[in-house]
Design a protein that fits this description.
Layout: H1 2-10, H2 18-37, H3 44-55, E1 59-60, H4 61-68, H5 72-84, E2 88-92, E3 100-104, H6 106-126, H7 130-148
Antiparallel strand pairs: 1-3, 2-3
Helix pairs in contact: 2-6
Length: 154
C-alpha cells in the first residue's frame, strides 16, 4: 500500500533518505559556486539575483523576490551589496512610485560572460555530463512543483 511505501521512506537510514541527498547536493552546489564566484566578489545569492536580471533586465524588487522565493528582508541586503559593488542600480518605478526597479549596470552586463565562463570551466573540470544534469534538473523541478502544492493555500 501507499502508506507502507511512505513509511519505508521515513524510516530509511540517513544515507537512503532523498531529503539528505538533496541537502548534500545543495551544500556541494553552494561550495562550488562560492569557489567559482569568489574572484568576482559575489555570493551565491547575489549570483541568483544577477541570473534573474541577465534573463530580464529592469525588474521590480518584488518580482525578483518572487522569482527567487526570497522575502524582501533577505533580498534588500543582497541588492544593496550588488549596488555597492557596481553590478546593478536601483531606480523608482515610473509606474508605481512606491516600487523600485533593479537594472544591470554596464559593468554587470559586461561581467555576465566572464562569470558564465568561470562556472562552465569548473563544471567541465568536474566532468559532470550535461545530459545527466538536465535530467536531474527536470526531476528536481517536478519535485519542487510537488512540494509547492503544500503552500498554495497559505
Amino acid at each position: 500500500t501507499m502508506y507502507l511505501e511512505v513509511e519505508s521512506i521515513i524510516h530509511a537510514k540517513l544515507d537512503d533518505q532523498l531529503c539528505f541527498e538533496v541537502y548534500r547536493a545543495a551544500s556541494h552546489f553552494n561550495k562550488l559556486y562560492t569557489h567559482v564566484l569568489a574572484p568576482f566578489q559575489l555570493t551565491y545569492s547575489q549570483y541568483l539575483v544577477l541570473l534573474v536580471l541577465w534573463e530580464q533586465d529592469g525588474v521590480m524588487t518584488k518580482q525578483i523576490g518572487e522569482r527567487l522565493n526570497l522575502g524582501i528582508g533577505t533580498l534588500n541586503p543582497i541588492i544593496s551589496k550588488l549596488i555597492e559593488r557596481g553590478w546593478i542600480e536601483k531606480t523608482v518605478s515610473p509606474i508605481d512610485k512606491r516600487a523600485t526597479v533593479i537594472s544591470l549596470t554596464a559593468f554587470g552586463k559586461q561581467q555576465q560572460s566572464h562569470v558564465e565562463q568561470a562556472i562552465v570551466a569548473q563544471i567541465e573540470k568536474c566532468g559532470y555530463l550535461v545530459e545527466e544534469g538536465n535530467a536531474l534538473r527536470e526531476q528536481l523541478h517536478q519535485l519542487n512543483s510537488f512540494f509547492e502544492c503544500f503552500y498554495e493555500d497559505e
